[in-house]
Amino acid sequence: MAILHFSSSSLISKITHSPRRRTIRSSQDSIKTHKNLITTDSFSSFSLCPCGRRHFLGAIPFLPISPSSASTSTDALKRLRPPKPDWYEEFFAWSMNTEMESYEKEISDYKTKLFDNLVGKKTEKVLEIGIGTGPNFKYYSTIPNVSVLGVDPNAKMESYARKSAIEAGLKSKDFTFIHALGESIPLEDASVDAVVGSLVLCSVTDVTRTLNEIKRILRPGGIYIFIEHVAAEDGSLLRLVQNVLDPLQQVVADGCHLTRHTGDYILEARFNGGADIKKAYLSSLAYISSHVYGVAYN
Ligand SMILES: C[S@@+](CC[C@H](N)C(=O)[O-])C[C@H]1O[C@@H](n2cnc3c(N)ncnc32)[C@H](O)[C@@H]1O
C-alpha cells in the first residue's frame, strides 16, 4: 500500500466510558464529546490500514459453531462483501505481509501493554477479527493454553497467518482460520474469552453490527482489546488530507476508511463493563497516524 511518511506530534488521549464507573482521566487538554471527555496526555505514537474473502468452516468440528449461524455467515459474506478478484486479494495480503514491518516495530510497545490484559486471566479461547497476516501472534505467546480463532473474509490471508502462528510458536492445532465477516461471526453466544482487533474496524462494512457480534460472542467478564486508526481531529490539515484521500483509500486498501470515528462507535456499543480508550498519534504511516486503542469489558 502506498503511504506518505511524516512525523507527527506525540500525543495520547484517554477516553473512559463505563456505566458502572464513569471515570474520566485528564492531564493536559480535554475535549468534550457527546457523552465523554477525551483527555490528552503526552506520549509517543504510530499508525495505518487495509482487507478481502474464502472457503468454509466445516473443517473445525470442535468449535462451538452452530450450523445455522454458519450458513447465515456465508450469506452475510456474499451480501456485505461481494467477492473480489483473486489477484486483488492476493496482492492485498502480500502487501500487508511485506509493508507493515516498520509500523509493527513502532506499535509493539502499545501492543505488548494491550495484550498484557490477557495474561493471568482465564483466556484460553481468543477470537481475532480481521486477523490478516497474523502480526499479533507473537503477543499470544505468554498466554498459557491459548487457542486462537482468526476470522477474515480474505482467504489469501490464511497461509500468511498460519506461517506467523508457527513462527510465534503456536501449535497448528491451536490456530483456526475462519472465512467469515466480523458482522456475522459463526460462533455461539458467550463462547470466547477475549476478542482482539487491530486495524480492522476501518475496513468492516458495518461497524456497529461487528461490535454487537463481538459483545454476543464474548463470555460475561470477557474482554475486547483493540487498536484502530481513526479520523484525525476535525478541522486539522491531516483531516482535510484524509477527506480527500478516503475514496481512493477504499479502492486501493480493500475497503479501508480513513475518516471513521471508531472510538465513538466503541463507546456507543455500550459494553457492560465500559471501555477504556486511549488515543495515539503515530509517526510511521502518514495520513493514517491517528489511532485509538484500549480495552472494552463485557
Ligand atoms: C488492514 S488489515 C489488518 C490485518 C491485521 N489485523 C493487522 O493488524 O495487520 C484489515 C483486515 O480486515 C479484514 N477484513 C475486511 N473486512 C472485514 C470484515 N467485514 N470482517 C472481518 N475482517 C475484515 C481484511 O481482510 C484484512 O485482513
From TrEMBL:
Protein's recorded name:
24-methylenesterol C-methyltransferase 2
Which residues does the UniProt record annotate as the domain Methyltransferase type?
A: 127-226
- Superkingdom, taxonomy of origin: Eukaryota
